């Protein structure tokens, strides 16, 4: 008999990993890259 | 192959970024004609005066039209030749009115030098055997120091001059 608790037990080892933290950290890195690229472009255009 | 939803987002951003960069590169190279400063105009480093731009009387700043100037510079160990004034003394400070378009042409008879008016977009390598060329519009008044930013020898730090962009 399946109880309410057993429904939440992860029985499939190949299920989706949680990559939310990874997405947030690479997005922060991406934002830093964008800011530096735009900064260099603005320096070139304003000088 | 199974990809996580977030991995697809990030791969998509990477591919879009690559395409954007290739478009910018193609636009700059083929439409705007952007190229390295020493892009193939060659000169005999033993006889740079064979090129009119680097004859002693043509060195330094020359006004060619209203708001248009040519600046010919010979960089050598360890000096920038910016021409001479009426009394024959070497010029170390150049004055250009703001808003002018300046074509900078430089070469060297000896080793690789840098040519950078710090704070402007004029920044290039000067290589023996090549003429480095760059056209810029100087809009921001101020004083800019000319420095060598390629280590060229023991007197590297003695290579300097200045550029004044005046209102």
Automatic annotation (TrEMBL), chain A:
<keyword id="KW-0472">Membrane</keyword>
<keyword id="KW-1133">Transmembrane helix</keyword>
<keyword id="KW-0812">Transmembrane</keyword>
<feature type="transmembrane region" description="Helical">
    <location>
        <begin position="23"/>
        <end position="46"/>
    </location>
</feature>
<protein>
    <submittedName>
        <fullName>Cytochrome c oxidase subunit 2A</fullName>
    </submittedName>
</protein>
Automatic annotation (TrEMBL), chain B:
<keyword id="KW-0186">Copper</keyword>
<comment type="function">
    <text>Subunits I and II form the functional core of the enzyme complex. Electrons originating in cytochrome c are transferred via heme a and Cu(A) to the binuclear center formed by heme a3 and Cu(B).</text>
</comment>
<keyword id="KW-0472">Membrane</keyword>
<dbReference type="InterPro" id="IPR001505">
    <property type="entry name" value="Copper_CuA"/>
</dbReference>
<dbReference type="InterPro" id="IPR051403">
    <property type="entry name" value="NosZ/Cyto_c_oxidase_sub2"/>
</dbReference>
<keyword id="KW-0479">Metal-binding</keyword>
<dbReference type="Pfam" id="PF00116">
    <property type="entry name" value="COX2"/>
</dbReference>
<keyword id="KW-1133">Transmembrane helix</keyword>
<keyword id="KW-0812">Transmembrane</keyword>
<feature type="transmembrane region" description="Helical">
    <location>
        <begin position="9"/>
        <end position="32"/>
    </location>
</feature>
<feature type="domain" description="Cytochrome oxidase subunit II copper A binding">
    <location>
        <begin position="66"/>
        <end position="167"/>
    </location>
</feature>
<dbReference type="InterPro" id="IPR008972">
    <property type="entry name" value="Cupredoxin"/>
</dbReference>
<protein>
    <recommendedName>
        <fullName>Cytochrome aa3 subunit 2</fullName>
    </recommendedName>
</protein>
<dbReference type="InterPro" id="IPR002429">
    <property type="entry name" value="CcO_II-like_C"/>
</dbReference>
